């Protein structure tokens, strides 16, 4: 009976199927006092030996806000410990620290001096992100992966992620198809500047297809796309919108970002993005959507999955840490381990620099 139970248990585990029969067989195998789980928790060395989830510096992507009209780093009030960076040696010195600590990936968000209804600063040849990409790639070459967010919300004077169109009945909508043309145009200028990965975040239908086709036409077949595939209309983006000056002037983004009540819809979005040419897919936010991360990874294990620990999640933890309510090292690492354990291959996090510093303590802390 034990041999049969072991065989069936292994088969069911490999198939990821949970049934009444599998539960019955496992309960037969794992029974006190024969099974004592505490044996494998008895000391730090044993816990480390059997730990299922590991964090590495290569898992992290550091978000950077690049502002056009400043010469000194500017603290972001809503994101304690984070800054808007100028396009000068202050940025290079900070990124050099990141690279030296083992962080090899950054994702750039631009804050232009000029905004208009079309977000034209996003796709200017000498725009803030185009210059930042060239600046970083000239300084670090192949030592740094430079990703760039592709959206219009930081560049439009109305704060929406696309082209606003007024209908005959007086209503305003985001014109999907006009918007993705501008996303494609923006992505090509990033590629011309030397970007490694473009990351469309606007949640417009067909955005990945438009970008992939435009990149390929321009000869940039090797530029990867990290799609914000399952980006939810979350209340936890508030600090980011203050940091990037990208809050919508009217309305909200619920007509294009996903409903927080839906999980399986994320699979539809992921399938569409993969079919359109996404190389990496993403779930955003991360901590509040661990179930979605798990769902996506179980259904698409072969596709690299990123998760974004967003500004509100960072600010929430940071506030508790600053008030002494949470242990800083344990709270940061536990939050990132949870995202990794759920299935994320990459984690975009404002804690990246701190997390890498604390990685050497993981074995002692858990």
TrEMBL record:
GO terms for cellular component: cytosol. Its EC number is 4.2.1.24. 5-aminolevulinate 2 binds at residues 311, 350. It comes from the Archaea. SMART domains: ALAD. Pathway: Porphyrin-containing compound metabolism; protoporphyrin-IX biosynthesis; coproporphyrinogen-III from 5-aminolevulinate: step 1/4. GO terms for molecular function: porphobilinogen synthase activity; zinc ion binding. 5-aminolevulinate 1 binds at residues 241, 253. It catalyses: 2 5-aminolevulinate = porphobilinogen + 2 H2O + H(+). The active site is at residues 231, 284. Keywords: Heme biosynthesis, Lyase, Magnesium, Metal-binding, Porphyrin biosynthesis, Zinc. Zn(2+) binds at residues 151, 153, 161. Mg(2+) binds at residue 269. GO terms for biological process: protoporphyrinogen IX biosynthetic process. Gene3D superfamilies: Aldolase class I. InterPro entries: ALAD, ALAD_AS, Aldolase_TIM. The keyword Magnesium applies. Pfam families: ALAD (PF00490). Belongs to the ALAD family. Homooctamer. This is Delta-aminolevulinic acid dehydratase.
């Amino acid at each position: 009976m034990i041999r049969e139970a072991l065989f069936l248990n292994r088969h069911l585990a490999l198939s990821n199927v949970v049934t009444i029969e599998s539960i019955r067989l496992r309960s037969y195998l794992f029974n006190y006092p024969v099974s004592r789980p505490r044996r494998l928790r008895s000391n730090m060395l044993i816990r480390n030996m059997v730990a299922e989830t590991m964090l590495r510096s290569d898992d992290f992507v550091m978000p950077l806000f690049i502002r056009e009209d400043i010469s000194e780093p500017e603290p972001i009030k809503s994101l304690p410990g984070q800054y808007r960076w100028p396009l000068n040696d202050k940025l290079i010195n900070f990124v050099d620290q990141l690279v030296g600590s083992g962080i090899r990936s950054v994702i750039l968000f631009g804050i232009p001096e000029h905004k208009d209804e079309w977000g034209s600063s996003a796709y200017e040849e000498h725009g803030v992100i185009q210059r930042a990409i060239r600046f970083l790639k000239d300084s670090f070459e192949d030592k740094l992966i430079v990703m760039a967010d592709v959206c219009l919300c930081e560049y439009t004077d109305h704060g929406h992620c696309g082209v606003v169109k007024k209908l005959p009945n007086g209503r305003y909508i985001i014109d999907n198809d006009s918007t993705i043309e501008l996303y494609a145009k923006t992505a090509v200028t990033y590629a011309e500047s030397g970007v490694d990965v473009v990351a469309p975040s606007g949640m417009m239908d067909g955005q990945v297809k438009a970008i992939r086709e435009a990149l390929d036409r321009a000869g940039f077949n090797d530029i990867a796309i990290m799609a914000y595939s399952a980006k939810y209309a979350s209340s936890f983006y508030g600090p980011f919108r203050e940091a990037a000056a990208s809050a919508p002037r009217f309305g909200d983004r619920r007509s294009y970002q996903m409903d927080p009540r839906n999980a399986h819809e994320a699979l539809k979005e992921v399938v569409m993005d993969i079919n359109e040419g996404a190389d990496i897919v993403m779930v955003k936010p991360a901590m509040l959507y661990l179930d979605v991360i798990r769902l996506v990874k179980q259904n698409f294990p072969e596709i690299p999955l990123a998760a974004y620990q967003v500004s509100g999640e960072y600010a929430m933890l940071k506030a508790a840490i600053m008030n002494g309510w949470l242990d800083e090292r344990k709270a940061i690492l536990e939050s990132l381990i949870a995202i990794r354990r759920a299935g994320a291959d990459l984690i975009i996090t404002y804690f990246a620099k701190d997390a890498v510093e604390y990685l050497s303590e993981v074995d002692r802390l858990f």
